[in-house]
Structure formats: C-alpha cells, structure tokens
Design brief:
Number of helices: 3
CATH topology: ph1033 like fold
Oligomer: single chain
Largest sheet: 7 strands, mixed
Distance between the termini: 14 Å
CATH architecture: Roll
Structural class: alpha+beta
Number of strands: 7
Number of domains: 1
Radius of gyration: 15 Å
Helix content: 10-25%
CATH class: Alpha Beta
C-alpha cells in the first residue's frame, strides 16, 4: 500500500441544498464564500459536509452528513460571475455517498464527546477532525474502505 497522502480531515457546514449544488459542480465553498478558510485546506485532504438544515436560512432540519470528498490540487479561486457575490471555491472530487444522520454518531465521534454542546464547533463553518472520526463518518455514509489516496 502506498503511503498516506492525506494531510488533514475536515468538517464543512452548509445547508443540504447548497451542498447538492456544489457536489453537482465539483466544488466546495465555506463561510459564505470566504477565501481564508479554504486556504487552510490542502490538496488530498478529505472533507465531509454537515448540513444542519435542508435550505439556507430554512427551518426544516437536516442534521446529517451530506457529502464526502477529496480536495483537488487547484488552489482557492473565484469563478466568473455576473453578480455582486464572488465567492471563493476549492475543487473537490466527491465520492458516491448517501446522507448519514448525525444523531446515531454523537456518542462515537470525538468532536461530539460532550453531547450537550456537540454543535458548538459547527458554528465556525469549517474545522478539523481526526482520521478515526472521518472513517466513522465515511462508513455511515456508505463509503467502504476510505483510502488515503486520491480517487
């Protein structure tokens, strides 16, 4: 087996509808399009999206992991737009997954060890997690044998 090329594992936070659009176009975006958080992420890092709601500013809860992928080599960029909002993005190779509710994982994931305050870190929009937490999330999302190599 080749050496692990993964530098870090991340949880990004966005509504499920925003995640669906990003998956379809092969990118990720965090913190309302800010560049600085995306610069902390490197090529071959793994990222899982957690979606607290179905729609941005919507009331319908989702509370599930909705995407998992491997970050590509391209640095953060701004796509050509004809509007006033010019977000920064990173390209991602999204894996085939299904949504995984967070509730059954709360006692297992290290970042949710304090069940009462498990959602606090999610307010930052992007944070690092352990390899074990990423493997647990991947398994819950139907990814078998998550490897370190870029797909």
């Amino acid at each position: 087996m080749t050496p692990c090329l993964i530098v870090q594992n991340w949880i990004a936070v966005a509504s499920a509808d925003h995640v669906r659009r990003a998956r379809a176009a092969g990118f990720m975006q965090v913190c309302h399009g800010k560049a600085a958080p995306l610069r902390r992420i490197h090529a071959r890092d793994r990222v899982a999206y957690y979606s607290p709601t179905v729609e941005f500013r919507g009331g319908e809860k989702c509370r599930a992991f909705t995407a998992l992928g491997i970050v590509c080599d391209r640095e953060p960029y701004q796509p050509a737009t004809d509007g006033f909002f010019c977000p920064y993005r990173r390209d991602v190779t999204w894996l085939e997954t299904h949504d995984a509710p967070i509730e059954p994982l709360l006692g297992v994931l290290a970042f949710s060890a304090e069940r009462r305050h498990w959602g606090y870190q999610l307010r930052f929009g992007l944070f690092r997690i352990s390899d074990q937490d990423m493997r647990t999330i991947a398994k819950a999302m139907g990814v078998i044998g998550l490897h370190c190599e870029t797909p």
